[in-house]
User: What shape does this take?
Amino acid sequence: MTDALLEVTSAAVAYGKVQAVRGVSLAVRAGEIVTVIGANGAGKSTLLNATMGALPLASGSIRFAGEDVGRLGVEERVALGLCLVPERRELFSTMTVEDNLVLGGFRVPRAVARDTIAEVYDRFPRLKERRDQLAGTMSGGERQMLAMGRALMSRPKLLMLDEPSLGLAPRIVADIFRIVADLRASGVAILLVEQNARAALAAADHAHVMELGEAIASGPAADLARDDRIVESYLGFH
Assistant: This one.
């Protein structure tokens, strides 16, 4: 798919002799939301970590912004415009909100970082209110917003989100998905891994369903949301 910002082709990832991801392909275009749904242990997070460069591919390829990034490390991929918000958020809990954001922008010029932190505060007013608060004392929803804000400090072209709604109250989940839609509208492409399949399919343009390390279904998100097998397995009866 030559116009794809991110193109993962036949990716396989192994932990020792155990293959966690087998032959998965996906693509994300600029300004698009693509979601990967599936049960725990399906290989979704492993796929994101391999795409970010935190895990090696056993086989297959990853291209980003027209470049084969298979030999590039995490920092080099971030410099190209690829960023991951991990499931555990991985904030510096003993540092303030603002210090966490500043660290997220350490690769960009100081003037750009200053402008970007203002944009992050506009997008997440709660973070501005709590700029001097220690990250470890924040609520789950606030920590998720901070993790996303810190990732945006690197000015990514594509933001990968690993279970952004995990453990959050329904009202906060709605806020997170609204922010995801706003980011797409601003031109940031999104690759979203989610167990909240209903919300993910409603937000996404394209979707992939993973089971036991393999993609078992792919297509427009709206089509998968109407697929009887997907509804029964992942969305429940409504």
